[in-house]
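Section 5: illustrative case.
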């Protein structure tokens, strides 16, 4: 058992290091970016579009914060608005499908996916999902009252304050990553050595088959569903070292996780803004299931690269 835990520990450290090389520079840039006029420009750009989804113009800042920073920033902005239940659900659907674009897209690219395609799928499904919910609810955009505060620009903030914020944000990101990834890899290593993963994969066979996936995708799928896209990608990176996934299955797996990941955390954080968690979870899961199954059937038998070697190309992370 000691040898198993040591192997799991080093697998967790290796995965944390791999993901940190992606997350740290992006976290650094975004921490500085939020103290510039860029976010205000984004809000100005998207405000007219909000009416298409039955949302007030002020909701643009919630979308911008969720898309380009994270869900917690978006939730903070939602608290400052007096949103009704329909508007809160529409925004939640939009943000659940598409959030933290820079970090999660960089992670997806790290395992060999096309970054623009990932962004297109997430943004497209997020906007379409919000639009369909708007049509189903039949709500009309209204005025809301709220305050967001003023942006503290870099030139108005002491240098030490900025350096401290950047350092604490990066440390928090890496610490949270390690706190989840290392224990997760330890557990997976133990389960793998005890051959318990084979039993889990067998139970998931019907779901995997429906989505065009084989049993090698079972553990990355579970990791992404419960721990998030970035952490699921970390498990994929580690898993593909031993059992490479064909490119087609890798795309199908990540498309499912792009649309439905971190189902516990991402659902619970919307409850304080009066969103029905079961509705939100059902919309995400069904959308992921249907889209992945449809794409699996569309791509079935297709030779993506034109050669058998490329179609079965493994993802190699250096």
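Designed sequence:
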């Amino acid at each position: 058992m000691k040898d198993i835990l040591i192997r799991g520990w080093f697998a967790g450290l290796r995965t944390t290091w791999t993901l940190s090389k992606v997350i740290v520079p992006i976290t650094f840039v975004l921490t500085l970016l939020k103290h510039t006029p860029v976010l205000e420009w984004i809000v100005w750009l998207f405000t007219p579009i909000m009416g298409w989804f039955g949302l007030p113009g002020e909701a643009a800042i919630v979308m911008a914060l969720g898309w380009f920073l994270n869900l917690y920033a978006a939730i903070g902005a939602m608290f400052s608005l007096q949103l009704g239940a329909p508007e809160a659900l529409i925004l939640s659907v939009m943000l659940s499908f598409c959030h933290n674009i820079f970090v999660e897209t960089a992670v997806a690219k790290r395992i060999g996916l096309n970054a623009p395609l990932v962004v297109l799928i997430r943004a497209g499904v997020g906007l379409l999902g919000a639009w369909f919910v708007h049509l189903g609810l039949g709500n009309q955009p209204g005025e809301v009252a709220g305050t967001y505060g003023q942006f503290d620009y870099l030139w108005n903030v002491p240098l030490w304050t900025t350096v401290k914020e950047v350092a604490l944000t990066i440390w928090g990101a890496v610490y949270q990553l390690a706190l989840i990834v290392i224990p997760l890899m330890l557990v997976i290593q133990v389960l793998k050595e005890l051959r318990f993963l084979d039993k889990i994969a067998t139970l998931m066979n019907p779901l995997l088959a429906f989505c065009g996936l084989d049993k090698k995708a079972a553990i990355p799928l579970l990791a992404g569903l419960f721990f998030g896209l970035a952490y699921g990608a970390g498990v994929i990176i580690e898993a593909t070292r031993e059992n490479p996934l064909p490119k087609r299955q890798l795309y199908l797996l990540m498309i499912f996780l792009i649309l439905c990941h971190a189902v516990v955390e991402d659902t619970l954080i919307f409850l304080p803004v009066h969103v029905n968690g079961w509705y939100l979870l059902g919309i995400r899961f069904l959308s992921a299931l249907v889209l992945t199954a449809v794409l699996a059937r569309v791509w079935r038998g297709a030779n993506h690269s034109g050669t058998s070697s490329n179609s079965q190309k493994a993802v190699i992370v250096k």
